[in-house]
Write a structure and sequence with these properties.
single chain; mainly beta; three-stranded antiparallel β-sheet; 1 helix
Length: about 50
């Protein structure tokens, strides 16, 4: 249940992507969103982690 955001951020010479992942809380069962800014190569690995 995760998806990449469309926007990509650019700073000086590095390309960065902001990824948002929906995570289900084990205690309450509610969903929360986790955000992270990283290089495009790291996004798939970050989204596949639980």
């Amino acid at each position: 249940m995760a998806k990449k955001t469309v926007a990509s951020l650019q700073t000086s010479s590095k390309r960065l992507t902001k990824a948002i992942k929906m995570v289900k809380s084990p205690k309450s069962g509610a969903y929360t969103f986790t955000e992270s800014v990283m290089t495009p190569e790291e996004v798939d690995g970050w989204l596949s982690k639980k």
